[in-house]
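> Could you send the EGF-like domain-containing protein prediction when you get a chance?

Sure thing. Input:
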Amino acid sequence: MHVWNLASVLAVLTLSQQVAAKGSGSKDRPGNCKDTEDCKTKGYECVALQTTRAGTETVKQCLPKEQDSDVCSGQYPGLCPSFSSWKTPYNQISSVCTYKPADKCVNGDESSAGSKGGVICVGGAKDPDGKTFDAIYGCADFDTSELELLFGEEGANDLAAELGTAPAIIEDCLSTNATSNSTLLCSGQGTCVPDAMGSLTYNCRCNIGYSGNFCEFIDSNKCQLPGQCATGVCNLDTQECECAAGTTGDQCSECDAKSSEACNGKGMCSNSVCKCEEGWEGLQCTKESAVKKSAKSTKKATTETTSGGTMLSAYSFGSITMSLAVLLAAIFFN
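Output:
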């Protein structure tokens, strides 16, 4: 009896940890999907965004698509995923709809040929020298510090360099105003997208509820993208932002001075605006600043050095715990 009780406890503990991990993932990444079948709301499609940003993995999100041109894909420039309500470092992603090299291009009026192995590419796309190039549109992250696209594909990066994509993105989509989201393209509430099919100039296409040249103005509490509400969740049935504790206002962009959770506990709420402590930034003080990250990295390196390499990571500790559990179970069974 004791053997089976111990084994059962171990199994339950392991299962509960797995379930908890899966649950936290969906909460931290609203709208995350693997394919379009995961998008439970009618009229939504699973759209991927490429990034090599540290601490991230393959990014896909359910986006509204009533017509092909609504989303960035294939021959159409459109919206890309938005990550305001995702946790760091995902909320540092700047979304760009831009060109990716393609093979076996066919014209848009040759859809039957496209279904036989070709791909319908961007029509009339020409480089700065007037030479036609074969490409499709795809979503990618843009690092506003390093001024580069984070495709992670040599061919795509080479094409971006040839087209002068990075300078065009900086000029057309990055606000020079000193706002809390000035380090993000389109204020983190839109997609930097070519202003016409085949164009090499860009502009910001704002998420619903936002406007302005850089999507810097909030117009309403309406939403369509699962990740667009600053610190809340977009209810896709009502298409309204539902705010998390400590936040209020349209797009959950204001702090609630009456709440103990205002400004993420990392700042003071005054006149509905957060004044963040040193080391934190963002509308609700949810983003670690570069200074904070640097200090944390230095402290970690110092600690590891002085401990003589005896520190155990969470992963190592978990592995030892599981190994000990297996050993105990084996002893009891024998």
